[in-house]
Design a protein that fits this description.
alpha+beta; N_methyl_site; transmembrane helix; transmembrane; membrane; PilW
Length: 338
């Protein structure tokens, strides 16, 4: 009987489970392991989130600078030359910003009026504390002249095109000079465009396209020779505007032909651009200055743009706010570099 008791005791000892203390220790150790793994996962996730936000900011900055630089480089450029001889027969050159070739590149400091865009708090309106930039130049697609009759103010083109219509503002040029005028009638069937006076908005003060400009009915007559080039005038304004999501974006205001009238059409280009400050280089000065310090806009040969961007993820920063970065880029005006 005593031997049997010993055998039973040994058997029951082998079948015994964990004690409460052992179970609690195992649970604590398990929680520590889970907490460590969770901490590593959260840290990795946070790092990925931050890196992704930084990549988005850098990509947006690169796109913004590429768009701005392309326009700045072409400021004041015609398809034929850069000798500065430009006849401009548009009316209202002092009031319509796109009609003033003397301001082919023109900047506006924060809290100053930019005539191309309204400043305010509504969507697409300019943010008051930011700079803006107006640029005029010729389009990249040129059309070839077959003949020009200055008496009847008519151009014949070598090829038909659907790119032109009545009301478009164009730049026509040859090696001697360029002229800016508005099309008062375009007939696609016989590829004839007219640049007469008396109609249009802003309309032409003269049908004479010779240099220098003479704003009388016939003006300074000049016949552009065959193979002269005609291109649309491209007028744009870059600014920081209020976007539909309640933030700020880089906007592009482009002058387009709406029912025969040049009209500004704003377009959101890069979202989450919070600020833009612009300075300018005017020879012979060595420093970049703000717009108010520029004395001759036709002499400005370089533009320095400073952008502040924030991430789309509003909790990507270390303080669970939007991640912000600032970038600066300098672009030369191609046809003003000596």
């Amino acid at each position: 009987m005593p031997a049997r008791k010993t055998s039973f005791a040994r058997a029951s000892g082998r079948e015994r489970g964990f004690s409460l203390v052992e179970l609690m220790i195992a649970m604590v150790l398990g929680l520590v392991v889970i907490a460590g793994a969770g901490s590593v996962f959260l840290a990795s996730s946070r790092t990925y989130q931050t890196n992704q936000a930084l990549s988005d900011v850098q990509t947006n900055a690169r796109v913004a600078f590429e768009l701005l630089a392309r326009d700045i480089r072409n400021a004041g450029q015609t398809a034929c030359n850069n000798n500065g001889r430009v006849a401009n027969v548009l009316n209202d050159k002092s009031t319509d910003w796109f009609a003033n070739w003397g301001n082919a590149l023109r900047g506006y400091d924060p809290n100053t009026v930019d005539p191309a865009v309204t400043t305010g708090t509504a969507v697409q309106q300019r943010v008051a504390s930011t700079s803006s930039l107006q640029i005029l130049g010729s389009g990249s697609t040129g059309l070839s002249v077959a003949s020009h009759n200055p008496t009847s103010a008519q151009f014949k083109l070598n090829n038909a095109t659907s790119d032109l219509k009545t009301g478009d503002v164009i730049i026509v040029c040859d090696p001697d000079h360029a002229a800016i005028t508005q099309i008062t009638n375009y007939n696609d069937s016989n590829v004839t465009l007219v640049h007469n006076t008396g109609t249009g908005s802003p309309g032409n003060c003269s049908k004479g396209l010779g240099f220098p400009t003479t704003c009388t009915a016939n003006g300074n007559s000049y016949a552009f020779p065959p193979n002269s080039v005609i291109a649309k005038l491209v007028a744009s304004d870059w600014y920081i505007g209020n976007n539909p999501e309640g933030g700020h974006s880089l906007y592009y205001m482009r002058m387009t032909n709406v029912s025969g009238t040049p009209t500004g059409q704003p377009q959101e280009m890069v979202r989450n651009v919070d600020d833009m400050q612009i300075t300018f280089h005017q020879p012979p000065n060595s420093d970049f200055v703000n717009a108010a310090s520029v004395t001759n806009w036709s002499m400005v040969d370089a533009v320095r743009v400073h952008l502040k961007l924030e991430s789309t993820d509003q909790r990507a920063g270390v303080d669970t706010k939007a991640l912000t970065r600032e970038f600066t880029s300098t672009t030369t005006v191609r046809n003003r570099v000596k």
